[in-house]
């Protein structure tokens, strides 16, 4: 059985006769949230039967979900081979002003997806790093996380969704599958999530950033920088030995960026390590000449971690310094802390946890 979610519309068209059936199937799956080929009533019965013998479109089962007090929901999925990954739905409220001046609230969502089962980058502050890499996710398993979450929450197909590749794994260590997922997600007859609403976050694999740029997908780039000196960055992120700060910055400078957008720099703030005004000053210098936006992230502690979360005063001072020196800078309001769904708290859970497939 093949996973239909692995196929772009073009690929599906090439599998079918007549081709136009592919669009209908895409709509059934991604817009009408069909549960089986039998639901696809405008397809001939023999075609439905043939499809169900060859394809499935449920690559993941949800094993568990947890809702945080801030309304974010963490999902634990199990793939067909038993691998487990996590994804997070982050509801964001947005106020829209209508032409008549009235204000209407609209639900807006960000979905944080995993790109690998585990990760081999070994960052010292990250829980996902602990178990190493098990395997890459397929394009259909990446798409499947989003489809499942939209479906389970009855999110209408046309509602705007932002995707961040900030769950488990290093997306650029699985570039081909991630790039294909971006293509499938953007399909107009499918989920129709424009690439400019998809942010790929990387620990800084410079050569892969270059390859991603060459693909010209139109996605946004986020760099997990976290340190302003190579000495500290190497301690936090071993990948810095292969690609140091200058190599990463050079790759960013060459990355094609949408005129209206900027490259996001994530800066994990750890108490006493990288939180001084001196660091802020060096960061401003590093970003000179780059259309950048900085997102400060509180270090989220997890069991066994040696680092400490900074206090709010330190974060705000750091942010103020950046803003005063012309760098757009926000502090990430980490969601899902109480359910361990916050940044760096996602981890493959072993089956011994005793959760059953549902
Ligand atoms: N591998 C990619 C994407 C997944 S990690 C990357 O590293 O960019 C997503 C973000 O969570 C990264 O910025 C990562 O540095 C951050 N993160 C990891 N561990 C964290 C922790 N304990 N507290 C807060 N953020 C963390
Ligand atoms: Fe991998 Fe990102 Fe965690 Fe580093 S921070 S170990 S790159 S998931």
UniProtKB/TrEMBL annotation:
GO biological process: rRNA base methylation; tRNA methylation
Keyword Transmembrane helix among UniProt keywords: no
Binding site for [4Fe-4S] cluster: 119, 123, 126
CDD domains: Radical_SAM (cd01335)
Entry annotated with the keyword Hydrolase: no
Catalytic site positions: 86 (proton acceptor), 343 (s-methylcysteine intermediate)
A GO term from the CC aspect: cytoplasm
Cofactor(s) annotated in UniProt: [4Fe-4S] cluster
Record's cofactor remark: Binds 1 [4Fe-4S] cluster. The cluster is coordinated with 3 cysteines and an exchangeable S-adenosyl-L-methionine.
Keywords from the named record: 4Fe-4S, Cytoplasm, Disulfide bond, Iron, Iron-sulfur, Metal-binding, Methyltransferase, rRNA processing, S-adenosyl-L-methionine, Transferase, tRNA processing
Segments forming a coiled coil: none
GO molecular function terms attached to this record: 4 iron, 4 sulfur cluster binding; metal ion binding; rRNA (adenine(2503)-C2-)-methyltransferase activity; rRNA binding; tRNA (adenine(37)-C2)-methyltransferase activity; tRNA binding
EC number: 2.1.1.192
Catalytic activity, as annotated: adenosine(37) in tRNA + 2 reduced [2Fe-2S]-[ferredoxin] + 2 S-adenosyl-L-methionine = 2-methyladenosine(37) in tRNA + 5'-deoxyadenosine + L-methionine + 2 oxidized [2Fe-2S]-[ferredoxin] + S-adenosyl-L-homocysteine; adenosine(2503) in 23S rRNA + 2 reduced [2Fe-2S]-[ferredoxin] + 2 S-adenosyl-L-methionine = 2-methyladenosine(2503) in 23S rRNA + 5'-deoxyadenosine + L-methionine + 2 oxidized [2Fe-2S]-[ferredoxin] + S-adenosyl-L-homocysteine
Start and end residues of each Radical SAM core domain: 105-338
Source taxon at top rank: Bacteria
Binding positions (S-adenosyl-L-methionine): 169-170, 201, 224-226, 300
Pfam families: Radical_SAM, RlmN_N
Location relative to the cell: Cytoplasm
UniProt family annotation: Belongs to the radical SAM superfamily. RlmN family.
Other noteworthy facts: Reaction proceeds by a ping-pong mechanism involving intermediate methylation of a conserved cysteine residue.
Function of the protein: Specifically methylates position 2 of adenine 2503 in 23S rRNA and position 2 of adenine 37 in tRNAs.
Name of the protein in its database record: Probable dual-specificity RNA methyltransferase RlmN
Organism: Campylobacter mucosalis CCUG 21559
């Amino acid at each position: 059985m093949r996973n239909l979610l692995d196929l772009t519309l073009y690929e599906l068209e090439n599998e079918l006769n007549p081709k136009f059936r592919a669009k209908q199937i895409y709509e059934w799956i991604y817009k009408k949230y069909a549960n089986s080929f039998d639901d696809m009533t405008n397809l001939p019965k023999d075609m439905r039967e043939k499809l169900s013998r060859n394809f499935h479109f449920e690559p993941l089962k949800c094993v568990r979900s947890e809702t945080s007090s801030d309304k974010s929901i963490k999902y634990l999925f199990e793939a067909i081979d038993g691998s487990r990954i996590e994804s997070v739905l982050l509801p964001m409220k947005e106020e829209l002003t209508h032409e008549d001046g009235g204000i209407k609230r609209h639900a807006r969502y960000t979905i944080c997806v995993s790109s690998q089962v585990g990760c081999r980058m070994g960052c010292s502050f990250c829980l996902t790093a602990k178990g190493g890499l098990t395997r890459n996710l397929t394009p259909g398993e990446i798409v499947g996380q989003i489809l499942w979450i939209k479906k389970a929450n009855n999110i209408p197909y046309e509602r705007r969704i932002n995707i961040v590749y900030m769950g488990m794994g290093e997306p650029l260590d699985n570039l081909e599958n991630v790039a294909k997922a971006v293509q499938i997600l953007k399909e107009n007859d499918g989920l129709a999530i424009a690439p400019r609403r998809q942010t790929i976050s990387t620990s800084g694999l410079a050569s892969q950033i270059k390859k991603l740029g060459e693909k010209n997908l139109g996605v946004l780039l986020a760099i997990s920088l976290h340190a302003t000196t190579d000495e500290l960055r190497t301690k936090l992120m071993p990948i810095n030995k292969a690609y140091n700060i200058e190599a990463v910055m050079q790759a960013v400078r060459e990355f094609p960026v949408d005129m209206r957008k900027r490259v996001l720099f994530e800066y994990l703030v750890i108490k006493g390590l990288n939180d001084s005004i001196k660091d802020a000053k060096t960061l401003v210098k590093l970003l000179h000449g780059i259309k950048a936006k900085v997102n400060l992230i509180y270090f989220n502690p997890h069991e066994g971690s040696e680092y400490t979360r900074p206090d709010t005063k330190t974060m705000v001072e750091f942010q103020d310094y950046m803003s005063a020196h012309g760098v757009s800078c926000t502090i990430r309001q980490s969601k899902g802390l109480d359910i361990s769904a916050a940044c760096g708290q996602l981890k493959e859970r072993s089956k011994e946890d005793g959760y059953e497939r549902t």
